[in-house]
Amino acid sequence: MKSKSKELKKSVTTKNASLERVLKKNEKIKENVTQAASELTSINEVLKQGKGVEVPVQVIKEVITLNKEVEYKVAKAADDLHQVNAELAQEMAERVVLESELADTKTDLADVRDDLSKSQAKEEETRKFSLQDALTGLPNRVLFEQSFDNGLIQAKRHGWGLAVLFIDIDNFKSINDTYGHDMGDKVLIMVADRLKSSVRKVDTISRWAGDEFVCLLMEVKQGSVVTRLAEKMVNRISEAFEFNGTVLSIRVSIGIAIYPADGETADVLFKKADTAMYKAKGTEKGVMLFR
Asked: Which residues pair with 288 in a beta bridge?
């Protein structure tokens, strides 16, 4: 489409040049006619002067010859002008066609741009959904792993601490079995929202799988600070939750691993956070720091 538009624009430019040549030719003919008219005026002046005065025969012959030449010039100019007008009409007609085609091409290009814009928006939307958990809207496992890898790079570069929290909903299966999957989905959404509201924008909460969530905390300075935050998460999630007249109190268990004290790779930190989470189950606070 771009190539066609360029070709049409080039054709219009060429046609403009051609039209300009024809117009210049038209101007030249006008000059010739003006000159011929001037010569005729001169001849008439000579003939007028001859009235009542004896004019030499040779002069009269020369004036008559000159008059014929001028008349020929005028006749030729008229023919040339007719030809130029015909060329001008043809040039204008072709230009109109070209400009019409160019306008159509511009419309087509606008449609293509619009389609491309919609396609890019759709691509961006698809990419977003591919990195997002469909139920909770949280970053999914793929995006979390990307964030974790980037977080480790930043932590190593700047000498920061970094914490991984593994979060599991206690007895989630019994919720599904007792109240149905709609209630189970509402519980997952509630937990996701409360976890997200507990952390900063630089931190990441993700739904890992089923009823498991993970959290990445950036720029961690002390393990005790992370432990207190995890306890607040447990308390916040345990607050009464109501759906369709049913009131539930949900409890979660959280295991914590901290970089670099508990490991320097994602795999090691995940495993230790997972181990700490299972140890946290059944404890009073529901939180365990790996040690």
From this structure: 255
State both tokens at 213.
Answer: 């969530």
**Cβ within 8 Å of residue 30, ≥6 positions away:** none
Q: Which element (helix H / strand E) includes 99?
A: helix 57-130
114-121: long-range contacts at Cβ-Cβ below 8 A with a sequence spacing of 24 or more?
none
- Give the separation between CA 215 and CA 218, rounded to whole angstroms: 10
Reading the block at residue 239, the tokens are 């607050």
Q: Which residues are catalytic?
A: 211
**Could you give the CA distance from residue 178 to residue 198 in angstroms, rounded to a whole number?**
29
Q: Both tokens of residue 46?
A: 């000579």
CATH of 2-130, one of 1.10.8, 2.60.40, 1.20.120, 1.10.287: 1.10.287
* 3-class secondary-structure state, position 266: helix
End-to-end CA distance of the chain: 65
Residue for token digits 């790996």?
Answer: 290
* Greatest Cα-to-Cα distance within the chain, rounded to the nearest angstrom: 143
| Domain extents in the chain | 2-130, 141-289
**CA-wise closest residue to 256 among 233, 274, 273:** 273
pLDDT at 238: 95
Angstrom distance (rounded) from CA 255 to CA 215? 10
Q: Is 200 left (phi over 0), alpha (psi -120 to 50) or beta?
A: beta
Look-up of token digits 């691509």: 123
Q: If one looks up domain 141-289 in CATH, what number appears?
A: 3.30.70.270
CA 95 to each of CA 17, 102, 190, 266: distance values in angstroms, whole numbers, following the listed order:
11, 10, 67, 68
Mean pLDDT by 10 residues, the chain (291 residues): 56 61 66 63 57 56 60 64 68 72 68 60 58 92 93 94 96 93 94 96 94 96 94 96 90 96 95 96 92 76
pTM across the whole model: 0.60
